């Protein structure tokens, strides 16, 4: 570590010599160690073979990608632990493409670390410190300024100035409140709960299973969500929008998913009415195919198969509401939705 004398000025105008350590002194380099591939031709050939193998594996993964695209049906669903039911083609395309890119990356890194030139180069750095004359002039100017401002003598002024400057950023912190209250779990849950009656949006009456006939689409909402104390008006619209559902009747044999069948009642299934793309109400039902179309961007959901997306920009299924019948014969919720309804806000980071 190099040292040098820095001349300064005392408050009385005299000269003082200050010892300053150069904080950017040259620490030097450790001795260079050669890699095995630099000194051993056999290690070099071995590394070359390993790298080539990685690139060959990438080629095989790309060929597998094409084979999956051509050979695996788009609509084939398989159970894969721990993902559950997934589209087999999408899964395999993702895995093979990921492997192809991974092997190229791994080969490139291996190549760079073992075979590319391993020279240590010195890039001289310019001295970062100002020359002695400039430093002395700066210190002198600072000391004159400090003396003229009276910062040293006027402790009260100095301390209150420090306090004022330290508190100013608090204004910005307080303004963060304008962003509104934290959503907490509001985006992840709705007012549906076990035993909550399903009310028809048309008749405002509770719904019996026999009210839902094949081919018709019935819109429902939870009981007790009409601007009462519990749900004042500004909250009501939000809660109503999140909890809105649609009910259709299928034959139990037409339902392809075991969970959907268990969550239905005699083939009557209830799904969220809010599109999982950007939240439009879905409502165009094709009774022959049991497809439900969102009018905004044409996302299409299969109501006989967990509300799965079969077309369009939506990226996840319509959430299903588990329903049952109470002792008086009316349809009610068996639980809240098992996942958030509406657009997939948590996937946007
Ligand atoms: S909001 Fe439904 S497809 Fe876009």
TrEMBL record:
A Gene Ontology molecular function term of the record: 2 iron, 2 sulfur cluster binding
Localisation: Cell membrane
Topological category with respect to the lipid bilayer: Multi-pass membrane protein
Source domain of life: Bacteria
Claim: Glycoprotein is one of the keywords in the record: no
Cofactor(s) the protein requires to work: [2Fe-2S] cluster
Parts of the chain that traverse the membrane: 51-71, 91-112, 156-176
Region feature Disordered, mapped onto this chain: 1-43
Ranges of biased composition (kind: Basic and acidic residues): 31-43
Keyword annotations from UniProtKB, A to Z: 2Fe-2S, Cell membrane, Disulfide bond, Electron transport, Iron, Iron-sulfur, Membrane, Metal-binding, Oxidoreductase, Respiratory chain, Transmembrane, Transmembrane helix, Transport
Coiled-coil ranges from the UniProt annotation: none
Chief localisation class: membrane
GO cellular component: plasma membrane
Domain spans labelled Rieske: 237-332
Gene3D superfamilies: Rieske [2Fe-2S] iron-sulphur domain
Similarity section: Belongs to the Rieske iron-sulfur protein family.
PANTHER family listed in its UniProt record: CYTOCHROME B-C1 COMPLEX SUBUNIT RIESKE, MITOCHONDRIAL
Its job: Iron-sulfur subunit of the cytochrome bc1 complex, an essential component of the respiratory electron transport chain required for ATP synthesis. The bc1 complex catalyzes the oxidation of menaquinol and the reduction of cytochrome c in the respiratory chain. The bc1 complex operates through a Q-cycle mechanism that couples electron transfer to generation of the proton gradient that drives ATP synthesis.
Designated name of the protein: Cytochrome bc1 complex Rieske iron-sulfur subunit
Naturally occurring in which organism (per UniProt): Allostreptomyces psammosilenae
